[in-house]
Amino acid sequence: MRFSTSIALGLLVGLSDALAARQDNDAPTTLPNGSATSLSTIPSRNTAVAIEQLEQLADFAYAEAIKLLEEGTNRKRRPHRPGTCSRRNLAIRREWGALSNPERKAYTDAVLCLQEKQARTPSYLIPGARSRFDDWIGTHINQTATIHYTGTFLAWHRYFTWQYEQALRNECGYKGYQPYWDWAKTAITGLEKSVMLDGSAYSMSGNGKFIPGKGNITISGNGLPDVTIPSGTGGGCVNSGPFKDMKVNLGPVALGLSNGSTISNGDGLSYNPRCLKRDLTDYANKRFANASSFIDLLKTRDIMDFQMTMQGYPGSGDIGVHGGGHYSMGGDPGRDLFTSPGDPLFYLHHGGIDRAWWIWQSRNKRTSYGAKGIAGTGTFLNQMPSPNTTLDTMIDFGYAAGPPRKMRELMSTTGGPFCYIYK
């Protein structure tokens, strides 16, 4: 399924008035140390306080996950967890900065390995795919209209990122787990000064070559007010770190440029080799994906509000932490909604997205793992009317990875095929 460029660009900024209003009330949470915290008021705009709040909530989610696994073992049952997950085989995903240099290099080596392996998708489906890495990009391109602002958004990307992690481990010998990007930290340090993007041999590579004279990036469409974001400090080919020689083979489909125009290579599936470009943009990180933005997201009360706050209520001028991360990396393909998995940083960003959902689920566990933990239809903003997403809706990645799974299998990180949490 395809949708127009205007819809693609409007993905982060448009929504009808029919959506439920945001709710600001919240219940107190008991933390592992026995203290209580509440997000019933507007989160602190003091960065240090907001960071502390985030750490407490992440600690609570970790402790809650361990407790439920232990209860499942002791009682011979696992609430919300029909799989075989236990403390013994539990994987811990960590923030990039928490990895040692050898662990970071092992991860990027595995990504480079995946880029050297032959694609599995037949050429008649994705003619431009040249590697296993491209299988994932093509799958995302083909399903973009059904996995953003839909009921499957969160679970689809959870399974997608996990399957990518499994490919790194099973096909390229990676021994670790998928790391994540903590946007709140890079909002403080600045992107280029973070260990994740400093361009060293132990980073995810750095910025693109600086291109002077760039204008602003404008997100527009659907008759809604434009959202304008300054260009970043790069814009050209990435020239340092593990991915300095990387080729992007697919896309773009709807790539916004700094002159206000949008370019595409048709449906994005034909062969179009070019360098990886980045335009690291601190403004997007600091404005839309900072610690207070994260707290705003976690204090939402229902799944519709959560996923809409995450992606950005269209017309609000806020593109959410999801858009904030994508527009922070910028460049090509990072700024193209369809082709964005072509930048390896995509998977750290969506590790962060999944971590946010995991933390939120721990605070709303009575409803977040079942039918009440799903909201939306099968198409972007239901602009092509489609049935509501249910626990029996299937997620299918075709040749990239499998098997297909029902939504009910993907609701918990320690249920179905999964057995991981975040630290």
Word description of this protein:
The model is unreliable at 1-42 and 76-82 (pLDDT under 50). Helix content is 34%, strand content 8%. The protein has one domain (5-11, 63-422): Di-copper center containing domain from catechol oxidase (di-copper center containing domain from catechol oxidase), CATH 1.10.1280.10. It is globular and about 55 Å long. The protein starts with a helix and ends with a strand. By secondary structure, the protein is mainly alpha-helical. It has eleven helices and 14 strands. The strands form seven sheets. The protein has a two-stranded antiparallel ribbon with strand order 1-2.
What structural class do helix, strand and pairing data support?
mainly alpha
> How many helix segments?
11
- Biggest sheet layout: 2 strands, antiparallel
Order of helices and strands: HEEHEHHHHEEEEEEEEHHHHHEEE
What fraction strand? 5-15%
Rounded average pLDDT: 89
In angstroms, what separates the terminal alpha carbons?
37 Å
The CATH homologous superfamily name equals Di-copper center containing domain from catechol oxidase
Shape: globular
Rg (CA only): 20 Å
- The oligomeric state is single chain
The number of E-state strands comes to 14
Strand order of the largest sheet: 1-2
The CATH architecture is Orthogonal Bundle
Low-confidence stretches: 1-42, 76-82
What is the percent of helical residues? 25-40%
How many domains? The number is 1
What is the CATH C-level name? Mainly Alpha
CATH topology: di-copper center containing domain from catechol oxidase
